[in-house]
Amino acid sequence: MITINKKRFKEHFRRKMNNLYAQTLEEASNEELFNVLCYVIKDMISKDWEGSRIYQEKAVFYFSIEFLLGRQLKSNLLNLGFEDTIRQGLNELGIDLDEIVESEPDPALGNGGLGRLAACFLDSMASVGISGHGYGIRYKYGLFEQKFVNNSQVEVPDNWLINSSYSWETVRPNRALLVKYEGKINMEKDDEDNLKVTHKDYIPVMAMPYDIPIIGYGNECINTLRIWKSEIPTRDFGKSSSYAKNQAASYEDALKYKYYAEEISQTLYPNDSNYAGQLLRLKQEYFFVSAGIQDIFRKCRRYKITTQDLPNKIAIHINDTHPALCIPEMMRILLDEEGLSWDESWNITIKVMSYTNHTILCEAMERWSEDIMKKLLPRMYMIIEEINKRYVNDLRKKGYSEEKVKRMAIMYDGEIRMANLCIVSSYSINGVAQLHTKLLKEEVLNDFYEEESYKFNNKTNGIAHRRWLISSNPELANLITKLIGNKWIKDTSHLKELEKFVDDENVLNRLEEIKFNNKVKLANYIKENNNITIDPNSIFDVQVKRLHAYKRQLMNILHVLCLYHEILDNVDLELDIQPRTFIFGAKAAPGYYLAKCIIKLINCVANLVNNDPRVKGKIKVVFIENYGVSLAEKIIPAANVSEQISTTTKEASGTSNMKFMMNGALTLATLDGANVEIYQQVGKENMFLFGLSAKQVLDYNKYGGYSSKDLYHSNKLLKRVVDDLVNGFIPGLGKEGREIYDALITYNDEYFVLRDIDEYADAQQRISNLYKDKIKWNKMSLINIANSGIFSSDRTINEYIEDIWFKGCDEDVQNNII
Ligand code: CBF
Question: What digits encode the pLDDT tens for the residues 105-142?
């Protein structure tokens, strides 16, 4: 049991400051105070961390190319139950915990939803008490820092590793491993006629592990996120490779080699839901996969787990296709190092691997050129080729048409389809919300679903409620505990008990007061950082997420333009408009031109609207720079309206929708992704729904019949705001306006912005009307909080544990193994 004593903590803290920096507390900067606190906490947990690494039960290894952790201090203190004692102790030392919290770097080792989900899952695996660990990459530069220059996004490298280290991590040089690229594969029979595979002339890269403790809530479980840094091998490792020796021949070559190795973990690809397709990305994928799988085998050997017993002792989860090479890498070790036959190796591999698909967007589907794979990872190529050969033979034996075989093949037309590899080689395939899973089964992966329906299942995403409610909205969390006790912290289904208070005016008023306080805090932040004054009495209407055309930030800002025109047209009439602050936060991938144009549009509209005295502050637009986890923790508790307005079918799940709901915002949404589950929880009377149904979108896509031009010509208001994009009405907007205009009109509005905008405007009007009735609004807010318990990632993780990881391979999968 990890305990804390204030007196001892203070002594420890002083001593650590002296050990680390040879200075007094008074001399220390906030960064130094943070480092010291971090080391003190690591000292306190070290015994339990060590203990948790021992295999008592099945261990889960979650492979993800992104872990968007966010700051760790507050959530670690919460999970350990140390916050109050440490706050007081520091206070007595003249130190403010909140200031230290703000000086922690925010590791942005992910783009958005997928990486953040992986971080929530780590928190939940530790909190429900399983041995569940992450493997990823220790990027030197995380997601870029966003700056606005002349209203446009400019990307600045994110140097989160100030002084090259991060205080939560522990580097373990004695556990470094070698990852091999390029070279030749030699196959020879030995004296006993066994096939011996050797990899010659490869380029060795060393994977150096850095461990971050993942602390469970209120238990002693401390798991590990192991992220790997790429380096040139130290001499011991280098001996094995002729390449490394040759590089020593010339200084120039040695430098080139150093660059080759270090480049691998240098930067996170800044693409969300988009396939990068570049050689370096493939190197990154193999890098952390190979290191991770080797590491698992090393642990298994240490704990004397036999290869046959692997499916009972470990589960490997492939988070989207980026870690798909886990499959051939595991096969490689079983075949080439453990000396098992193909059938034995396949039998074990398929029983260990499970896979989550996170998107149906075609542009996100990874396909690697066979030539690149063959050259960079020759042994991986050979194994994938063999898996494909056997699979395709099997399909042909079943009598399927060549068309169908073509669609299902792993390799086709010079490309390797990574999703197909995962589907064929895993015992479980899941989508991340009901509609998404349905689309996988019935549309995108239908061939595979018809073939092996028992592999498919849904696991609706979730969020770490400890971070997203308790830590980021303490006033609300305290109110909840005061009303229903603290059982909800461990089991969020208890939140439902809040419904008892739906007619209690005192509770509703308190809810409103808490929201107001959070809005004031956010308003202060915006004043300080954006120099925009916003009114906390206005509706805070928030859309924060990656900038992508399918997420339709464009529809939101076009609607703002409509409101602006309405105000100007009626300037003498003093329109009774409910004051609104439209808040945006979004990063665009640096190469995604349309998304960057939309950012510029939002910023230009913000300048126009905010500085026009005729608007009289009725509407304001704020685009908060550099949106990320730490900012989300400030913004979400302050929101009244949660904008979840993606084109139906396109957002696999979304997770900010869940965070907003849990913090009492009302959802304005299409029935897309997990908005469907929100609707199932609260009903249409407690949210604002609009827009095309999934069927309508699919029908338009299949059969056509949509013309944005027709809409544009037939709807005057629409024509007016679309024309604003190109007629100089919006100062500062240049060629970007034309780009957006073309996407909407010339290229027929792929994401149905103009088709849905009327209904969207109606829903917005309903919001304005309802906000006037504060009691009604607060009731709806309470109902949303009370029904948000299902969206805790503890629930999601328990489902993964029960239906996938601990259940293991289904009988049907066993019977059907190729
Ligand atoms: O499942 C987590 C999230 O993943 C994405 O961000 C992704 O694939 N990159 C999806 O776009 C989200 O809908 C989803 O919530």
Answer: 999 999 999 999 999 999 999 999 999 999 999 999 99
- Beta-carbon contacts of 155 under 8 Å, excluding residues fewer than 6 positions away, are 144, 145, 146, 147, 270, 590
Nearest CA to ligand 1 atom 4: 114
ipTM of the complex: 0.99
How many H helices and E strands in the chain? 36, 23
3-state helix/strand/coil string of 595-646: HHHHHHHHHHHHHHHHCCHHHCCCEEEEECCCCCHHHHHHHHHHCCEEEECC
What token pair was written down for 714?
Answer: 């037939």
What is the token pair recorded at 264? 């691998």
Stretches where the chain sits below pLDDT 70 are 52-55, 235-248
Residue 56 C-alpha to ligand 1 middle, in angstroms? 33
Q: Which residues pair with 152 in a beta bridge?
A: 149
Segment (H or E) for 437 = helix 434-439
Q: Would you state the structure tokens that stand for residue 465, as one six-digit string?
A: 């409620």
Q: Using CA atoms, how far apart are residues 777 and 779, in angstroms rounded to an integer?
A: 5
DSSP state of 56: S
Identify the CA nearest to 114 among candidates 283, 319, 289, 291.
Answer: 319
375 vs 201, 202, 422, CA distance in Å? 12, 11, 22
First to last CA, the chain: 48
Q: Give the other-Cβ count within 10 Å of 272's Cβ.
A: 25
* pLDDT tens by residue, 23-44: 999 999 999 999 999 999 999 9
Which is it for strands 428-431 and 456-458: parallel, antiparallel or unpaired? parallel
Q: Which residues are catalytic?
A: 358, 545-546, 551, 655, 659
Question: Ligand 1: distance of its center to the CA of 113 in Å?
Answer: 5
Classify burial at 471, counting beta carbons within 10 Å of its beta carbon; exposed 0-12, middle 13-18, buried 19 or more. Answer: buried
The Cα–Cα gap between 224 and 210 comes to 10
